[in-house]
Amino acid sequence: MEQPTVENTSPTESTVPPSNPPDAASDRRTFLKKIAALVVGGIAVMVPLGAGLATFLNPLRKRIGSGGAAEFIKVTTLEALKDDGLPHRFAVVADKSNIWMTEKNVAVGSVYLKRKGDQVVAWNTVCPHLGCQVDVVAGGSFKCPCHNSIFKPDGSVTAGSVSPRGMDELDVDTAALKDGEVRVRYQNFIASIAEKKPSS
Ligand code: FES
After folding, report:
1. How far is the CA of 145 from the centre of ligand 1 (A)?
2. Which residues approach ligand 1 with their CB closer than 6 A?
3. DSSP state of 164
4. Fewer CB in 10 Å around end: N or C, the chain?
C-alpha cells in the first residue's frame, strides 16, 4: 500500500514577509524628513512675510489714528490768533494717506485755540460724549448742542453734564510758537468713556 506523502507546510523565507521590512522603514523616514523640511521652510517664509505685511499696512494704521503716532500739524500763525482769551475755531488741514494714495490738503477736523500772550491752548471740537461738534458760548465756555453738556472755559466738564470727561485738550508745539507758528498734535479720542484714550 502506497504511503501518503506529507507536504511540508512550514513557512519559508520566500512565503512570509518580514514584520517590518527595511524598505518601508526607510520610506517612512524619508517622508518624515520631507514633512519636517516643509514645516521649517514654511516658518522661514511666513515670518518675514508677516513682518513685511505689517510694514506695508503701517500707513493705513497711521491714517486711522494710532494715537501717539500723530504728528504736529500747522493750524495757523500766532499773529492770526486773537489774543483775547477766548476760544476760536480753526480747521485742521493735512495730507491724508492710505496704502494706495495720498490726498493733499484735506480737512481732517477742527480745533478750538485760545491764546493768552504767547501761550496757546488747543482742544478738539468733538464732544467726548457721542461726538457732536461743541459750540462756544458766552464767556468762553463750551456747550454741546446734542445733549447739552457744558464745559468751563478751561475745558473741564460741569456737574450734571452727560459727557464723561472734559474737552479733549491737544498738544501744542511750544517750540514752533517761538517762531510764530501754531502747530497742534491733532488726534481723536474714544467717546463715552471717562479716560482720554486715542482712538485707533
Ligand atoms: S454728544 Fe455732546 S453731550 Fe452728547
Report:
1. 7
2. 127, 129-130, 132, 144, 146-147, 149, 162-163
3. S
4. N
Q: Which residue range(s) make up the domain with 45?
A: 21-63
Count up the domains in the chain and report the number.
Answer: 2
Flag residues of the chain having pLDDT under 50: 1, 5-14, 16, 55-68
pLDDT given for residue 62 in this prediction? 45
Q: Do 56 and 128 reside in the same domain of the chain?
A: no
CA pair distance 55, 30, nearest whole angstrom = 38
Q: In 64-156, which ranges are continuous DSSP H helix? A: none
CA of 129 to the centre of ligand 1 (A): 5
Instruction: Give pLDDT tens digits for 178-193.
Output: 999 999 999 999 999 9
Do 86 and 143 sit in the same domain of this protein?
Answer: yes
Same domain, 58 and 139: no
pLDDT of residue 97: 81
CATH number at residue 112: 2.102.10.10
d(CA 90, CA 93): 9
